[in-house]
């Protein structure tokens, strides 16, 4: 008996419809036949996420989308921003697996190389990437962090400039850092991984694709988010204003 198709919710935490479409396309390329990618983004919030303030704003939109996905019965949730905003809070709300693309990409990089580099957008986000490396325990695996010094939405402006800078930084990461793999540090770079892998001759890992395959693997193993300890459902308490009912 073949398993039923999965519905995987892919959440772009910013409000950019164009970036949501890019992320959705990358997810659908790797999804197993029959599995559905449900790509969503919040209607309110920041158009791009490029700092701690943006992440704080984005977290509410992520949680609202996770709740909608949980109520609709999706089989997994993906947070498609490299800061993994609201990841642990989302796991409290969810029963199905919740995967952040940074954590997913870093995990996979350690399975195919002993050292990896990260290429991201603005220099200010390098500190956020360092925090995540420490939080996830991958500091010793990371050989270098690089920024293209362009905003996230430059990946969607049609000029190709941001994509070329990503390429240049990936080559530099390979040659200067001696890394065996490169992690792309933005959901908007999701469509670049395969061509860069072919050109550079080393794995270039997109966290969106990595997260899709992790959700599928967890579903195949029958593993869901633990409701024991700190990831138990949020405590039942009255929330006011726009937060009303979010913890139910």
From TrEMBL:
Record-linked InterPro entries: Asp/Glu/hydantoin_racemase, Hydantoin_racemase-like, Iso_Racemase_Enz_sf
Catalytic activity, EC: 5.1.99.5
Pfam families the UniProt entry points to: Asp_Glu_race
The reaction(s) this protein catalyses: D-5-benzylhydantoin = L-5-benzylhydantoin; D-5-isobutylhydantoin = L-5-isobutylhydantoin; a D-5-monosubstituted hydantoin = a L-5-monosubstituted hydantoin
Top-level division of the source organism's lineage: Bacteria
GO molecular function: amino-acid racemase activity; hydantoin racemase activity
Family of the protein in this entry: Belongs to the HyuE racemase family.
Protein name: Hydantoin racemase
Organism: Chimaeribacter coloradensis
């Amino acid at each position: 008996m073949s398993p039923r198709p999965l519905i995987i919710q892919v959440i772009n935490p910013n409000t950019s419809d164009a970036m949501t479409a890019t992320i959705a396309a990358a997810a659908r390329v790797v999804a197993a036949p029959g599995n559905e990618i449900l790509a969503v983004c919040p209607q309110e919030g920041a158009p791009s996420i490029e700092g701690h303030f943006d992440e704080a704003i984005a977290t509410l939109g992520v949680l609202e989308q996770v709740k909608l996905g949980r109520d609709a019965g999706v089989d997994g949730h993906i947070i498609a921003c490299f800061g993994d905003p609201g990841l642990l809070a989302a796991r409290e709300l969810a029963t199905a697996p919740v995967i952040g693309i940074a954590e997913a990409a870093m995990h996979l990089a350690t399975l195919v190389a002993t050292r990896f580099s990260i290429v991201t957008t603005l220099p200010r986000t390098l500190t956020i990437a360092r925090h995540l490396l420490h939080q996830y325990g991958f500091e010793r695996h990371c050989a270098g962090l690089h920024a293209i010094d362009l905003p996230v939405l430059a990946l969607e402006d049609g000029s190709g400039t941001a994509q070329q800078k990503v390429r240049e930084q990936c080559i530099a990461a390979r040659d200067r850092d001696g890394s065996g793999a490169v992690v792309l540090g933005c959901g908007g770079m999701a469509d670049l991984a395969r061509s860069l892998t072919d050109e550079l001759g080393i794995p270039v890992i997109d966290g969106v694709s990595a997260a899709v395959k992790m959700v599928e693997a967890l579903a195949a193993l029958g593993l869901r988010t633990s409701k024991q300890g700190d990831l138990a459902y949020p405590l039942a308490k009255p929330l006011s204003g726009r937060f009303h009912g979010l913890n139910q």
